[in-house]
Amino acid sequence: MRRLHPLSGAVSVGRGLVQGAFFGVIAGTTMVGVLGLPAWTIPLVPLALALLVGGFALARYYRFTYEIEGDTLAVDSGVFARQSREIPLGRIQNVDITQGVVNRLLGLAVVAFETAGGATTEATLDAVDEAEADRLRRLVQRHGETSPESGEAPAEADGESLREDASAPAAGPDTEELFAFDLRDLLTYAVVSVRPAAPVLLLVGLPLGIDILTTVLRYNLGVVGGPPSLSLAVLEAFGPPRLVALALLTLAQFLVAALVLSVALTLVEYYDFRLVREGDDLRYERGLLRRYSGTIPLSKVQTVSIRENVAMRRFGLATLVVETAGYSGGSQESAQGVAIPMAPRADVYALARDIEPFDDFDFERAPTRARRRYAARFAIVAGVVTAVGYAVDTFLLGSGYWWVLGGLFALVPPAAHLRWRHRGVALDDDVLATRSGFWRQTTRVVPYYRVQTVFVGRSPFQRRRDLATVTADTASTSSIFGGAARAYDVDDERAAQLRDTLRERLYTDLLERRRGTGQ
Amino acid sequence: MESLHPRVRFLWAGRSAIAGLVLLGLLVAVDRLFVAVPLELAVGGWVALVLVGAVHAVLAHRIWRFALEDDSLFLVRGVVTRTDTSVPYVRVQHVDTTRGPVERTAGLASVVVYTAGSRGADITIPGLRPDRATELRERLRELAGESEATDAV
């Protein structure tokens, strides 16, 4: 059995000592105050706590062992309650390697093994040295290539097209660089794929930069011709035009700041991005401060998604997301997921086809009565916004311009049309494809043999128009967060047809794949 | 298509009544500690909630149907949003029967079907007689075993 790297043990012991001492200082001073103990006992409490917490960390380090033997990964851990865990290598969906700043300096890496099912990462080694991380990754990878008789055998069928160029013996799969970002690509990507969360992050962070905020606001006041001091009385003295100018100026600055933040976050996250193919695995590396790398076995791919936002569509670019059934921690940061952040559309489709072969999709649109449904929905939203605007204007502002909001109704027909136009479903020979979203369009490709459960849902509004939404659930991670492949607002009869087709194809394709692997 | 045991309606209606009681208790606490809440309004709200819960329970029972089809378990449910669910037997990972304390008092049991899909635990058939639940679990297990053994995910 192997232990984690001694340095990582030392780091956690050190952290334990500091934490123990910190809480000890607080506990010690309170205890002396409350119990009236003599002052010389104060340093004893931190010392004792530091030794306790540090000692526990040391014990945990010594009691944590792991080893790959044959085709299982065994992990023994726990100081008081012992836990032994054995994970068959064939069940490991992906291996994620993370290096924080400290670990990078020490040459250490955290290795996480993800399996399907389970709400958390199955095993995390925190931390081993880089060479060991690489060795573990290769062991898991090699297992997938040399043991087609295991339960996860379909590796072969999937990888056929890939195998031809990866015909090297399993011992040393050849690597081929598929994609890399240079700084210019990365900058383009950062600008084009603005994070919707950036403004929220900025708002949350505002209290920290309150000085900067007041300076900016004072400057803005000066620009619109007010006195350089902040107070509500000043605002009241302003007429609506100057107030609006001030608001617009501030909003513009806020948006620019959010954009800068978003670009910075993306740069840090995707700095030096590389995607390579190693045998039957995709492997990527990324990150400026924290370095992430992960392997995605092509045989375990559940769904392939292609995302294009409005700006990317304009320039013919797309994002490719490859999902397995592993646990992703619900956040982008925990590595698994994005395979290619941004590349020309044709390249993205080529790689997607390499992973799951499919033809050009011929998307079937929802019946036009679905478009009326969207129009009705957007009209209700516009109506509510106008009503709220009317109320606010009548009771608070009194400008009499509330009817300007009525202009929103003009946007209803194009919005409904765009939503309708960008939704569709296609049944290919081997895959189901669904598409939705205008601003951020997502095309999901689900091989039939990956479908788990099929849901057909009808809301009361859909029932009125004989429409239904068909959801093909897979074991992929993103479907937990509402990202499942959905065919929206298809005709009722067509929905039943889709459901039956999916079920039939699931069985026939599973059989076919089994035959294909010679079982 | 098989429907659920009629007694499940009382279970569901009772559940919403109890949830309403919790809300009522909260309102009373708010009334005592912070702002005066008219008690008639609170009780009226609770009664309304219980009525809605009861109607919902009756409708839900009327709509709930399930069937063991050739290749999949088929469920129909949902009062507001109607959902049909097909769970192919190949995808069944394991099947549980569960009996919570309230269910036990009502003499009912549920069958929970797990798949590797992200909504695996969603698939629960409530309101079954215990012997029927056991039988259904056994049957599902057999069907899952009979269907081609393949990789689960």
From TrEMBL, chain A:
Which residue windows are transmembrane per the record?
A: 12-34, 40-59, 200-223, 243-268, 374-392, 398-416
Per its UniProt record, what Pfam families does this chain match? Answer: bPH_2 (PF03703)
Q: Which domain of life is it from?
A: Archaea
Question: Region (Disordered) spans which residues?
Answer: 142-171
Sequence ranges assigned to domain YdbS-like PH in this UniProt record = 61-139, 270-353, 420-502
On whether Membrane is a keyword of this UniProt record, the answer is: yes
- Swiss-Prot/TrEMBL keywords: Membrane, Transmembrane, Transmembrane helix
The name of this protein is PH domain-containing protein
Q: Which organism is it from?
A: Haloarcula saliterrae
Automatic annotation (TrEMBL), chain B:
Keywords assigned: Membrane, Transmembrane, Transmembrane helix
- The portions of this protein that span the membrane are 12-35, 41-59
Start and end of every YdbS-like PH domain? 62-140
The answer to whether UniProt assigns keyword Transmembrane helix to this entry is: yes
Name under which the protein is recorded: PH domain-containing protein
